[in-house]
């Protein structure tokens, strides 16, 4: 699609030269003096300006006033409505500008300016508010007044509708106009160029608060930088995901405008008019089980970024074209078992996944299957899968699967009906592999599921749904406060910190109780009400012990606020045999760390200390974390991996306490390898001095290094030794300093082999040439080379050969170019 000649914008940005001049005099990122502006793009974000006519007040029969209001809807259909709606109030007269005045480059996302495409037409955008009003009316008419009120609060909040908006008096959408919100998007990098920070803004001299206001856009792009190309004009079809979407559309299977998250808050569930198929001879009611066109996606799941990314990688992308992804070893899913503490959103995540992939959602619980009549449960299992197959593609979610097929001490403890049900479930799981049915089970503990089901091969992917993380807790609280009177300056950070380890259901109850407290006091809800409610409510999942803990056991010290389960891996899963090449590095670690720990008495006899602290240093992307993990595996130790983000806090003194908690967890789970990644970011060499909190953290780290026991091996990692605070380097705990260099020839061959394993390779592949051409490449670069070669070969429908790899090398610049240690 070509660029439109003219577009409407709501704001005129300053020119690039002026922006660069102003930014040069400001420090806007944690990189401080090392901050450098890498790229500057002018991004035009699309919105629909929708004018809504309605009658406010009690309804049109009581002489209420007719009103019109204007709202902004997300033109990308990517669930950013709540963010873009905030710009509607300040939008004045629209400006008509010529796209020819801007440089959009030779391809999407490549020029100084990027114009993002609208993803749906005006009619679809104009239908959105009327559809939501109809959803509200159905809930009201069904007698679900409380749900209708909550729905209305969320409707107003998400789309920026005023408090006076009365859906009962809704008349019509009178106008839909395409408008662009222009922003500057700056990409900053630090000294080593291995981390990037994006900032979105309109005026370069604006306050930091104004920068934060536009932070949603920088997060949206930073979460997936390919979105500039994905949504830009003249889309490149190089990307697998876009090509697969095109293929699906060409096959006539395009079910929705896109795969983006849903744009509503739920409705009445399945509607018989939605085309739900009821198989012949099946007594179970398909209409009560199947939800068509799930109106929820990952955009509605607050926080939990690691969980969502794992599901995207393991489930979403392979589901789009399982044959291609299986052949090229990029990942195929056969079935997913969600596990984790109760009340933390397994059902919510499952439904969001269905919406993300555009599948119908079939939800079943034990109550739907069990029966007092002999043989009937097995019959219901069969009917359930018949319904799923009749309504494919779908995601079949079996909640509390352990209650249907739980662990029993031998088949003798099952009655005949239970055994028939498990056997039928095994049969259906096996047959479902030939259908477009994704089977997802949910349980609190994996070990509670019958062994035959776990070994069936249909639940190879097991994904933990942990208690909500910081971002998720914040969003959950915000959702349950929406539409309620809250103080203008309410600070949720203390509440979010206080509720670490709480389930999502606990947070809903806290918000409810806080609202009651504020109502009794005749006040708006503020953090004092929330904190009081949190104090009165214990977590419903205290000392939660998940499946990893049940098998390998992770100790959570009573004194530590840090979550041990999120930091400790009892079984690292790799050892030195999994590290290709790097013989000198492994030999040195064997000599300096492993041998003394294996035979401490012998070393003591010769007056040699047992080394239990070292610094790994070297260029980024060369495997320091991987090597530390392999060291833990070689020793048979647990692995405790911590980053600066796990320790830093804006609260005075909190970083020091986090350091103390970290070492308490290490001691409780000894023997272990405590790996402190980017230790220079925690205790860096600062020429300008430290603030009080930073000094306390360094002092605490020094104290812990001095006192830590011999069964805790402390490994720090940094790119440059001189970046570490002098006091830490002189502490005596890091006398052994080992360089992790770029991969040698053998290592590069091994790394490429690992990333090309199970992918179709040409028989005559010239490994020597490929290895030679990748000299000076980091391990992370080699992974990218393998990935790019696989994608090129897949587009050509060919085996991966030398030419594909060499072309991938030529397109992949080494991240170590210019690196000096």
From TrEMBL:
Residues 243-279, 540-568 are annotated as: Disordered. GO terms for molecular function: ATP binding; ATP hydrolysis activity. The keyword Manganese does not apply. SUPFAM superfamilies: P-loop containing nucleoside triphosphate hydrolases. Keywords: ATP-binding, Coiled coil, Nucleotide-binding. Signal peptide: none annotated. The keyword Glycosyltransferase does not apply. Residues 243-262 have a biased composition (Basic and acidic residues). Residues 332-469, 610-744 form the AAA+ ATPase domain. PANTHER family: AAA-FAMILY ATPASE (PTHR23077), NUCLEAR VALOSIN-CONTAINING PROTEIN-LIKE (PTHR23077:SF171). This is ATP-binding protein. It comes from Halorientalis pallida.
């Amino acid at each position: 699609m070509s660029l439109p000649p003219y577009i409407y914008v709501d704001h005129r940005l300053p020119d690039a030269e002026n922006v660069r001049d102003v930014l040069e005099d400001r420090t806007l990122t944690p990189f401080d003096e090392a901050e450098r502006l890498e790229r500057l793009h002018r991004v035009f974000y699309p919105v629909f300006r929708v004018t809504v006519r309605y009658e406010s007040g009690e309804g049109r029969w009581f002489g209420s006033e007719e009103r019109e209001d204007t709202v902004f809807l997300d033109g990308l259909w990517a669930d950013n409505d709540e963010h873009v709606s905030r710009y509607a109030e300040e939008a004045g007269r629209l400006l008509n500008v010529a796209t020819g005045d801007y440089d959009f480059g030779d391809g999407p996302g490549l020029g100084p300016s990027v114009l993002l495409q609208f993803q749906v037409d005006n009619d679809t955008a104009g239908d959105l508010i009327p559809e939501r009003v109809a959803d509200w009316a159905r809930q009201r008419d069904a007698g679900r007044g409380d749900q209708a009120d909550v729905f209305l609060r969320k409707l107003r909040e998400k789309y920026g509708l005023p408090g006076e908006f009365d859906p009962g008096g809704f008349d019509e959408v009178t106008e839909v106009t395409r408008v662009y919100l222009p922003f500057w998007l700056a990409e900053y990098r630090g000294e080593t160029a291995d981390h990037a920070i994006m900032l979105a803004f309109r005026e370069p001299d604006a306050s930091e608060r104004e920068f934060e206001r536009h932070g949603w856009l920088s997060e949206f792009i930073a979460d997936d930088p390919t979105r500039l190309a994905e949504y830009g004009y003249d889309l490149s079809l190089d990307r697998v995901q876009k090509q697969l979407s095109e293929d699906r559309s060409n096959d006539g299977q395009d079910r929705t405008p896109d795969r983006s998250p849903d744009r509503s808050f739920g409705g009445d569930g399945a509607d018989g008019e939605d085309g739900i198929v009821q198989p012949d001879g099946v007594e179970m009611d398909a209409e009560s089980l199947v939800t068509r066109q799930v109106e929820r996606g990952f955009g509605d799941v607050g926080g939990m970024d690691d969980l969502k990314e794992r599901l995207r990688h393991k489930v979403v992308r392979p589901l789009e074209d399982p044959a291609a992804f299986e052949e090229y070893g990029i990942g195929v899913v056969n079935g997913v078992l969600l596990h984790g503490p109760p009340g933390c959103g397994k059902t919510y995540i499952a439904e969001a996944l269905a919406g993300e992939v555009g599948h119908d959602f079939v939800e079943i619980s034990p109550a739907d299957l069990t029966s007092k009549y002999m043989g009937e449960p097995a019959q219901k299992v069969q009917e359930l899968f018949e319904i799923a197959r009749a309504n494919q593609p779908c995601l079949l979610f079996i909640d509390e699967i352990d209650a249907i097929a739980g662990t029993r001490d031998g088949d003798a403890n099952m009655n005949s009906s239970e055994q028939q049900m498990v056997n039928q479930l095994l049969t259906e799981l096996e047959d479902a592999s030939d259908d477009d049915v994704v089977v997802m089970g949910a349980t609190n503990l994996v070990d509670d599921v019958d062994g035959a089901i776990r070994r069936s091969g249909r639940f190879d992917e097991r994904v933990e749904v942990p208690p909500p993380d910081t971002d998720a807790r914040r969003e959950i609280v915000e959702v349950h406060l929406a539409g309620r009177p809250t103080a203008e300056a309410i600070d949720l950070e203390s509440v979010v910190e206080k509720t670490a380890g709480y389930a999502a259901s606990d947070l809903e109850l806290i918000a409810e109780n806080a609202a009651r407290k504020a109502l009794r006091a005749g006040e708006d809800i503020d953090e004092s009400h929330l904190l009081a409610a949190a104090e009165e409510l214990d977590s419903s999942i205290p000392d939660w012990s998940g499946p990893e803990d049940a098998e390998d056991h992770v100790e959570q010290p009573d004194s530590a606020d840090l979550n041990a389960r999120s930091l400790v891996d009892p079984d690292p899963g790799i050892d030195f045999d999994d590290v290709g090449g790097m013989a000198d590095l492994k030999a040195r670690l064997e000599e300096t760390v492993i041998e003394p720990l294996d035979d401490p008495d012998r070393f003591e006899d010769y007056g040699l200390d047992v080394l239990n602290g070292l610094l790994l240093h070297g260029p980024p992307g060369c495997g320091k974390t991987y090597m530390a993990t392999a060291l833990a595996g070689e020793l048979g130790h647990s692995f405790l991996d911590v980053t600066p983000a796990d320790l830093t806090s804006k609260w005075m003194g909190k970083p020091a306490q986090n350091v103390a908690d970290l070492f308490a967890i290490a001691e409780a789970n000894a023997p272990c390898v405590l790996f402190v990644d980017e230790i220079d970011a925690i205790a860096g060499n600062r020429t300008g001095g430290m603030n009080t909190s930073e000094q306390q953290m360094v002092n605490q780290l020094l104290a812990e290094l001095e006192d830590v026991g011999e069964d805790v091996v402390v490994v720090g990692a940094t790119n440059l030794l001189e970046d570490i605070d002098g006091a830490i380097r002189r502490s005596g705990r890091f006398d052994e300093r080992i360089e992790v260099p770029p991969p040698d020839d053998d290592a590069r061959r091994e790394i490429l082999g690992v990333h090309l394993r199970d992918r179709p390779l040409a028989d005559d592949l010239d490994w020597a040439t490929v290895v030679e051409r990748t000299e000076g490449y980091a391990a992370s670069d080699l992974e990218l080379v393998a990935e790019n070669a696989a994608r090129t070969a897949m587009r050509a429908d060919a085996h991966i050969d030398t030419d594909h790899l060499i072309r991938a090398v030529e397109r992949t610049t080494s991240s170590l170019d210019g690196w000096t240690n």
